[in-house]
Amino acid sequence: MASRYQAPRGTFDVLPDQARARARVEATAAGILARAGYESIQTPSFEDTDLFERGVGRSTDIVRKEMFTFEDKGGRSLTLRPEGTAPICRAYLEHGMHKLAQPVKLSYVGPFFRHERPQAGRYRQFHQIGLECIGTASPLADAEAIMLLSDLLGELGVPGVELHLGSLGSLDSRKAYLDELKAHLHAHEGDLSADVRERIDVNPLRAFDSDHEGTRGVMASAPTIVDALEGEDGEHFAEVRAQLDAAGIAYVIDPTLVRGLDYYTRTIFSFVCDALGAQSEVGGGGRYDGLIEQLGGPATPAVGWAVGIERILLALDEEEAAAGRDGFIAVGDPGQRQRAMAIAVELRNAGLAVEVDLAGRGMKGQLKHADRIGARQVLILEADGSAQLRDMTTGEQRVADTGNLVDEMTGGEA
Ligand code: AMP
Hints:
By secondary structure, the protein is of the alpha+beta class. Helices cover about 35% and strands about 20% of the residues. The chain has helices at about 15-35, 50-55, 60-65, 85-95, 140-155, 170-185, 195-200, 215-220, 225-230, 230-245, 290-295, 310-315, 335-350, 365-370, 405-410; strands spanning about 40, 45-50, 70, 75-80, 105-115, 125-135, 160-165, 250-255, 265-275, 280-285, 300-310, 325-330, 355, 375-380, 385-390, 395-400. The strands form 3 sheets. The chain has an 8-stranded mixed β-sheet with strand order 1-5-6-11-10-9-7-8, sandwiched between helices. Helix 5 runs parallel beside helix 10. The longest helix has 20 residues, at about 15-35. The model has no long low-confidence stretch (mean pLDDT about 95). Bound molecules: adenosine monophosphate. Adenosine monophosphate binds near residues 114, 260, 283 and 284.
């Protein structure tokens, strides 16, 4: 039957088969992050529009083109969150977390919203797992954050992952570099795409991202920030690299790395995966030492990343096997249905995964269904109060001790 309604463009339903694979990704991340001392935080799905305009940056694609913005009944402008860092920094300030022992280490998982052109690996509602380490400028924090994302992708088995690493310098050195880059772009204006040319003075870094042939030619000879790093910025980047080297994490220095958010300073990184095609980034992040001050707080250095759950699943391209059931309770006689439910409840309370027939099937149909849902054993209740236990792998059947069903079903190991 064709459905009259469909999920909105760029969104999708997560059906049970896919939900299992997602649950594994989330559980793996939760374990890795908790062991490193990251605690979970949840912020609302929407925020004041101004938070993202200030935090993410007015010149970015996200703010210019991709936000789901609406007015509430009180005339306030709200926006479905396109990313997690600005909201978490807002929460950090709002709850006075700068008074806690620093750094504050937070992790999150949830839906994000961007009005992008949908394609494989790019949706209008997608899900990220992320972390923020707020309140330290130490390069160790950058390295640890990168190591945790590397661990996560490794433990999940995401194939063909490559880590790209760069540094944008501090806000001051970045400004000097940007002036140099703008001068280079202005000197070659005629070869640039219209889009890049119009934004030379607004966002010259984006020129590195362009697919336009002329622009790419101009960028091949453009000055790079990694070469321009000086003093403490250079030392900071060298220490991040030394830590990663010591941990045996491979990376390529990518002087053209830019990320679509304005708040990054110093370290930036991106994990890419060939299996993903055009949308090749599985996750990434960086340091954002100026963001909290930008939002009205004290100067507070921080670093973080986000990884796309859908991109991880695309790269893994495998389905999680169904979990199976410990047992199914079949009734030879419809009069036994209530008893079957009572026994199921007792077994569930003892920790077993047990189902009963809810569809009024005959005995043959019940056994077939038990097999379909992966039940390892079927308890068959007889009208005289006795019961048989059938092992679904061997097909063997024997009389069950109805006074001790938990032990019967677990082989005494419950
Ligand atoms: P960003 O917040 O832009 O740094 O993105 C971090 C990660 O989120 C990316 O590496 C992707 O895995 C994921 N991501 C970003 N935008 C989308 C989208 N529109 N659809 C699916 N995943 C996305």
